[in-house]
Design a protein that fits this description.
Elements (H helix, E strand, L loop, with lengths): L1 H4 L2 E5 L7 E7 L5 E8 L26 E6 L20 H13 L3 E6 L5 E2 L5 E2 L1 H6 L5 E2 L3 E2 L12 E10 L1 E3 L4 H7 L2 H22 L3 H12 L11 H30 L2 E3 L5 H6 L3 E4 L12 H6 E3 L2 H9 L4 E6 H7 L6 E3 L3 E7 L9 H13 L2 H9 L9 H4 L9 H34 L1
Parallel strand pairs: 4-5, 4-8, 13-14, 13-15
Antiparallel strand pairs: 1-3, 2-3, 6-7, 9-17, 10-15, 10-16, 10-17, 11-12
Helix pairs in contact: 2-13, 5-6, 5-7, 6-15
Length: 444
C-alpha cells in the first residue's frame, strides 16, 4: 500500500545516507540549507524505525559551519592581536571562552568589529551589536554583558559580578585652628580633663602646695620646664618622677599626632555608595548600558551622566579631575587600582555575566550546554586567574613615599611658638603669685 501511494518523507540539512538530496539553496555567502527525501518505495511498510536514525545531535560537529560573531575590542578585557590567526587573535576571558566553544563545535567564525558596546538609545532602540542581533546579522556577541531582563535571549549566567563606583580621594590638610579642633573628638578632651584633675590633686599632696601652685607645676611639666619644688621624701619623689615621665610621654604623643596631621594629608573616599554619588556634584562617566543601574529619575542627575568608556574615565581620575566612574568591578581593577588617590567602592548591585545572542538561534542550547560545563568545571575561573596577571598593580612603596620639606615641618614651629607663649604666661603667673604670697606673709 505504501508503494502504491508513493509517499515521500522530507528533512532539512542533515540526514543519514539512505536519504537523497533533493534541493539546496544558499542563504548568504556562508550558509545554505539542503532538502533530503526518503521515498516510501524503498521500504515495504512504514513504522517508527524510519525516523530512528534522525534522533541525533546535529550540533555536535558543525563541520566548518560559519558562525557570525560581533566583537568590541578592548585593550584590557578583550584585546586583539593581528599577528595571530583565527580566534587566537582575541585574548582575555571573552576570547578564551569563544575559542573553546567554537573549537569544540568545529565551526568557523566570521567576525564583525564594533566601535562601542551594544546599548539602547534614549528612545529604547537597540544600538551597536544589539541592533545586528535583532536583525540576525550576527549570531553571538563575544563581549560578555551583565545579565539583564530587557534583552530577549541570553546565554547561561556563567560568572558573577557587581557594579563598582570609582572616585578620587579627598586629600586635605589642616589649614586653621578650627579644622584642627574638629579633628579631636570629645572623648579625647574628657580624658585630658579627667587626667589633669587627677594629676593636679596628686601634685597637691606630693608638694604640699595649694591647688593653684600644683596647677602651675603641672603646666611646667607639660611644656617641659624645670620644676620649682621637689618632694622631700623618697616615696613622694618616686611618684613625682612617674608623673614627669607620664606628662612627657603624653606631650610627645600629642605633638607627634599634630605633626602627622599636617604632614600626612587625610585621605578618605569621596564616593562609597549610590546615595553619596547622587548627592555629590561630580560628573558621572560610564557606558550607556550602565545608566539603568542608577536611580536617575531626577532630571539634574540625568544631565550629570556622560557616556564614556571606563579606560578614558580612569585617565581623568589619574589626572586629578574630580569625576566619578561607574563600571563593572572586574573591569575597573584592570584599568586602575585602589591607592593613595583613587578609591574603588565596595561591590554594589550584584549580578551575573552572560552573552547576548539572537533569537531563534539553532545553536543556542548547545552553546548553553558548553558554557554550563565550562563554568561547573572551573575552566572560566582558570581563565579569570590567568587574566588577573594583567591587573594594574600599585607602584613600589619606595617610589610612593613623599619627602618631607621645611614647609611640611612648619607645624613644629607653630607648636614651639605656642609653648613659648604658654610658658611666658606661666612665668608671669608665678611672679604674680609669689608677690601676693610675700605680701600676705609680711602682713601677718
Amino acid at each position: 500500500m505504501a508503494a502504491a501511494m508513493r509517499m515521500s518523507f522530507y528533512i532539512c540539512n542533515v540526514a543519514p545516507s539512505p536519504w537523497d538530496s533533493v534541493k539546496s539553496k544558499n542563504v548568504d555567502e556562508y550558509n545554505s540549507w539542503t532538502l533530503f527525501r526518503y521515498s516510501s518505495i524503498k521500504i515495504p511498510y512504514i513504522d517508527s524505525s524510519l525516523c530512528q536514525n534522525l534522533y541525533f545531535d546535529k550540533t555536535r560537529d558543525l563541520h566548518g559551519h560559519v558562525v557570525n560573531l560581533g566583537v568590541f575590542v578592548q585593550s584590557s578585557t578583550l584585546p586583539f592581536d593581528d599577528m595571530k590567526v583565527g580566534l587566537d587573535r582575541f585574548g582575555g576571558v571573552n576570547g578564551e571562552i569563544a575559542k573553546e566553544i567554537w573549537t569544540k563545535l568545529n565551526a568557523n567564525a566570521s567576525v564583525k568589529f564594533y566601535k562601542t558596546m551594544g546599548t539602547f538609545d534614549a528612545k529604547g532602540n537597540p544600538v551597536g551589536f544589539y541592533e545586528d542581533l535583532r536583525l540576525h546579522r550576527i549570531d553571538y556577541a563575544m563581549n560578555m554583558i551583565f545579565f539583564r531582563y530587557f534583552w530577549k535571549l541570553q546565554t547561561y549566567p556563567h560568572e558573577s559580578s557587581a557594579i563598582c563606583i570609582i572616585s578620587y580621594k579627598d586629600r586635605s590638610t589642616i589649614g586653621s585652628l578650627r579644622e584642627l579642633l574638629s579633628t579631636i573628638t570629645s572623648t579625647f578632651w574628657i580624658i585630658v580633663i579627667i587626667g589633669s584633675v587627677i594629676l593636679n590633686i596628686a601634685l597637691k599632696f606630693l608638694l604640699n602646695e595649694n591647688i593653684s601652685s600644683s596647677c602651675l607645676e603641672l603646666l611646667r611639666m607639660i611644656i617641659s620646664v624645670s620644676s620649682l619644688k621637689e618632694p622631700q621624701q623618697y616615696t613622694r619623689r618616686f611618684f613625682f618622677a612617674y608623673i614627669i615621665v607620664l606628662t612627657m610621654m603624653t606631650n610627645f604623643y600629642f605633638q607627634s599626632s599634630l605633626s602627622s596631621i599636617s604632614i600626612a594629608p587625610s585621605s578618605k573616599p569621596v564616593i562609597d555608595s549610590e546615595e553619596s554619588l547622587l548627592k555629590s556634584d561630580l560628573i558621572i562617566y560610564g557606558r550607556a548600558s550602565m545608566r539603568s543601574f542608577l536611580n536617575l529619575s531626577d532630571p539634574k542627575h540625568k544631565e550629570r551622566y556622560v557616556n564614556e568608556e571606563f579606560p578614558k574615565c580612569a585617565k581623568r581620575l589619574l589626572q586629578g579631575q574630580r569625576v566619578a566612574c561607574i563600571s563593572g568591578c572586574i573591569s575597573s581593577r584592570y584599568n586602575i587600582y585602589e591607592g593613595g588617590r583613587v578609591h574603588i567602592s565596595e561591590e554594589k548591585r550584584h549580578t551575573f555575566m552572560s552573552f547576548a545572542v539572537r533569537d531563534n538561534w539553532p545553536l543556542y542550547f548547545r552553546v548553553n550546554q558548553i558554557l554550563r560545563r565550562m563554568s561547573e568545571g572551573g575552566l572560566i575561573v582558570l581563565f579569570r586567574r590567568r587574566e588577573m596577571r594583567l591587573f594594574k598593580r600599585p607602584p613600589r612603596f619606595r617610589k610612593s613615599i613623599k619627602r618631607i620639606t621645611m614647609r611640611d615641618a612648619n607645624f613644629a614651629f607653630y607648636v614651639w611658638n605656642v609653648g613659648v607663649v604658654v610658658s611666658s604666661c606661666v612665668f608671669m603667673c608665678e611672679i604674680f603669685l609669689a608677690k601676693i604670697k610675700t605680701k600676705i606673709s609680711v602682713a601677718f
